[in-house]
Amino acid sequence: MFFGVDGPYWTLEDDAIANGGDGDGEFDENEANADAVGVAISNASLALALFSPTNNTGNAIKYIALKATADHLGFVGADVFQIEGSTIAVSLNIATGTGVTSVTPVMNFSGELFGLFDANADGVITVGELRELNGQAADSSTEYGLVGDLLYETTDDQDDEVSLAEVVRILDTSGAGGLSVAE
């Protein structure tokens, strides 16, 4: 990404061998647009969530969660000002509004995900709970998995424990390291 003037800072056309690039599909300094001035960011991701309670009883608490990462961020195109960073990660998880103090709880995303699979809220995810969530009887002798990776097998006991990390790994069909509504 590039935010500035006289851009873009780099394109795949700049990388083309016919234009003096090496054709590898990745940025190299000699492929940069010398006229571009601004902020260049590579391999960035941003997630932003804004929440407010649905049972708003006059309390105007709002919850904000943000996670941003980038492999590289830097000011380019001017020697007067130089700043750059690599392997950048920014996380924010706050509550704001009327009555918020330093001890006001914020969103616990890991707890929320765990609660989706821990049906009886005992702090443990079991094969029986996963079977019931999948529309099967807790003590059935069925298996479930995706693409050859089994979440539980026919021989697994309903009280066998399954880690949240394993549930996410198996159900994460996109390979993004988390679960989306579509998965």
Catalogue the unreliable spans. Answer: none
How many DSSP E strands?
7
The helix count comes to 4
Shape: flat
Number of domains: 2
Q: Report how far apart the termini are.
A: 29 Å
What sequence of helices (H) and strands (E) makes up the elements? Answer: EHEEEEHHEEH
Average pLDDT score:
80
* Oligomer state of the chains in this structure: single chain
Q: What does the largest sheet look like?
A: 5 strands, antiparallel
Radius of gyration: 24 Å
Helix percent reads: 10-25%
Structural category: alpha+beta
In percent terms, what proportion of residues is strand?
25-35%
Structure, described:
The chain is an alpha+beta fold and 183 residues long. The chain is built from four helices and seven strands; from the N terminus they run βαββββααββα. Strands 1, 2, 3, 4 and 5 form a five-stranded antiparallel sheet that branches. It is flat, with a radius of gyration of 24 Å. The two termini are 29 Å apart. The mean pLDDT is 80.
Concise synopsis of the structure shown:
This is EF-hand domain-containing protein. With 183 residues, this protein is of the alpha+beta class. Helix content is 15%, strand content 28%.
